Amino acid sequence: xxxxxxxxxxxxxxxxxxxxxxxxxxxxxxxxxxxxxxxxxxxxxxxxxxxxxxxxxxxxxxxxxxxxxxxxxxxxxxxxxxxxxxxxxxxxxxxxxxxxxxxxxxxxxxxxxxxxxxxxxxxxxxxxxxxxxxxxxxxxxxxxxxxxxxxxxxxxxxxxxxxxxxxxxxxxxxxxx
Length: 177
Prior knowledge:
mainly beta
């Protein structure tokens, strides 16, 4: 298993052999903190050209099933199942985020990770903790992006707004009840 550092970039094929992979995410914080894990499938302008590619607790699957939120697997808080062969060519980047639902900040994270799984085997892991952040309410953890081939970058960047601000940043609109 390969440890990945913040900012490190790799060809996805150097990390996993399959074109169907799992991205497992775990985060633990202070008592009572609730974290929302999401994946934004964005176009070459870094925007959601289609809001059906915002995958989160209330929309667990992209239209063709290329991106699916399948719940926690093997100790992960949430797991994304990705099938690259089914992903539309308009999707150029998958952005994995964590946001706080309620009070607190990302500096209160005791530990967290994002790991790339090839089947049931962990191939690479990016670990982070609250020491990496300040008063942010969300984190862009990692991205898979297409530049001639699919590539991975461990971002680990705090984001001041919560889930609503992330959605706005990527060109989406929050549904009003």
